[in-house]
Write a structure and sequence with these properties.
- The chain is α/β, with parallel strands linked by helices.
- Among the domains are: 180 residues, D-Maltodextrin-Binding Protein, domain 2; 152 residues, D-Maltodextrin-Binding Protein, domain 2.
- 37% of the residues lie in helices and 11% in strands.
- The strands form four sheets. A five-stranded mixed β-sheet has the order 2-1-3-13-6.
């Protein structure tokens, strides 16, 4: 790898005259005959073909019978109803249309409000499909989901559509059914969603899910601490380290009272696996296979671990967990996801924070780590046709807009948009836009935090090996080369278990 790519090496009609009706002559009583008188000569008609005739007054029609108009109106209405009824009988019926109920399992959103708004909108065009949504407990969610999908108990409800993490496809490959082209084509998916989603959710041309939102790491900074230090948020990793040094405050005993950044340990750094994954990624390591030179891996780990070195004294395992430390005002830079902001605000509603893109190594080595949730169709569903119709609805631009808008009514903002064509609509939102603005350069990692995949899950198993690797250096003083060999061996075991290639 190029030595420059290292972390630690320092769009106007005329109207007809009104005719006056001629009234019938009034009968006159007979009188005595009058003497004859001379009759004046009649004028000759000049038009050829016409002859003089004495007009005969027409006999006026008898007045209509009382109520005749209403009888005609009633007869006409009856005729219309009969015709419509006959047409209805003659129209061929679609015998395949049936009323079904789809079971939809999700996380985070409760059973009312946001999800019910989507369901009600879907049923306007699909009245024969009802959706029974339920929010599942996020703790040990993956284990519970696996148990229900693999069980044969007919008396237990199983989901037709369920939510899963973007890194879980290897664990749920047999439990998910690919989406047909009438739901979404590969061309549409590639056009509408980010490259990281194409990498995560498409295998051999088959699409396994639709994301309703996305999320990724961003640099969240304490505005007051930066202003007091006269600093701007760092744009690269060298600036990040220098800012951390300037923002760190220690007391007379050398104890860190305000930390510039949280790195170097595993136990009290929120999202440590994701942060390490990002450092590995900008060093050129393939996170899906963990392939890359040991030099590149060593550079990433050396940079991360340097923050907890005694000589640096920037962070240590005795400090509060980093999210809590940031909420208290004792941490200047926090690396996290958009939903972390809600947690921070709950802990300290008065904190002034700013959201910035993640630092880059150089213009060719930048990006972030994506972590998001996806809706998929169960291979065990008895109503796949209807489930696919629902997935087609979820894949529409208007549906994702509604999902975001409804969520924003209940909290400050919804899940950042997963669709590329909706990103710019958030440009004026200083909290959400920094997240979506990075998605074009995002990657995903099986070293993912907070997925609740349970003991033995892909993420948890990998993070156990990662934690052991960090501790072996910090606590046991194991050399970097040995640590990387042990870590690589552990990763290969987990990948083999879940068929990650």
């Amino acid at each position: 790898m190029d030595g420059n790519n290292v972390l630690f090496d320092n769009t106007n009609t005329q109207q007809k005259p009104e005719q006056v009706p001629v009234q019938a002559p009034t009968p006159v009583a007979p009188q005595a005959p009058m003497p004859p008188q001379a009759v004046p000569e009649q004028p000759v008609l000049q038009q050829v073909g016409f002859s003089e005739q004495v007009p005969v007054e027409p006999t006026p029609p008898p007045p209509p019978a009382r109520g005749g108009f209403f009888k005609k109106l009633m007869i006409g209405a009856i005729v219309v109803v009969v015709v419509i009824f006959l047409i209805f009988l003659l129209i061929p019926k679609d015998k395949n249309v049936k009323n079904v109920t789809l079971v939809w399992w999700g996380l985070w959103e409760d059973d009312s409000g946001v999800m019910q708004a989507l369901i009600a909108d879907f049923r306007k065009t699909h009245p024969n499909i009802d959706i029974e949504y339920s929010r599942r407990d996020s703790q040990q969610y993956r284990d519970f989901l696996v148990g229900r999908l693999s069980g044969n108990d007919k008396g237990v409800k199983k989901p037709d559509v369920f939510r899963y993490h973007n890194t879980w496809l290897p664990m749920f490959r047999d439990s998910l059914v690919p989406l047909p082209s009438d739901v979404i084509t590969t061309e549409e998916f590639k056009k509408n969603y980010y490259p990281v989603m194409q990498s995560d959710l498409v295998e051999n041309g088959a699409i396994y899910g639709i994301p309703l939102g996305t999320d990724c790491l961003a640099l969240i900074t304490n505005k007051k601490l930066f202003e007091a230090a006269g600093l701007q948020p760092p744009k690269n990793w060298i600036e990040f380290l220098n800012a951390a040094k300037k923002l760190t405050v220690v007391d007379e005993n050398g104890k860190v009272t305000t930390a510039g950044a949280a790195m170097g340990t595993m136990s009290n750094v929120t999202h440590a696996p994701d942060i390490i994954s990002l450092l590995l990624s900008v060093q050129g390591v393939d996170l899906k296979t963990f392939s890359g030179s040991n030099y590149s891996k060593a550079q990433a780990f050396t940079y991360y671990l340097s923050f907890a070195k005694k000589e640096q004294n920037l962070w240590n395992s005795s400090l509060d967990e980093s999210k809590l430390a940031f909420a208290k005002g004792n941490l200047a830079m926090y690396i996290g996801f958009s939903w972390d902001i809600f947690d921070i605000k709950k802990l300290n509603k008065n904190i002034e924070l700013e959201v910035n893109p993640m630092p880059e190594l150089n213009k060719d080595a930048k990006g972030t780590i994506a972590s998001y949730w996806v809706e998929g169709v169960s291979s065990k569903s008895l109503h796949k046709k209807e489930a696919f119709e629902f997935m087609h609805y979820l894949a529409q631009k208007e549906t994702e807009q509604k999902f975001y808008t409804e969520a924003a009514k209940k909290r400050g903002f919804g899940e950042p948009y997963a669709r590329v064509d909706l990103a710019e609509s958030l440009k004026d939102d200083k909290i959400v836009y920094p997240f979506v603005s990075q998605m074009k350069n995002a990657r995903s990692s099986y070293f993912a935090s907070n997925t609740r995949d349970g003991d033995g899950g892909l993420n948890t198993s990998l993070n156990v090996y990662l934690s052991k690797a960090i501790d072996s250096i910090v606590i046991d003083n194991v050399g970097m080369e040995t640590m990387l060999e042990n870590l690589d061996a552990g990763i290969k075991q987990v990948f083999a278990k879940y068929g990650v290639q």
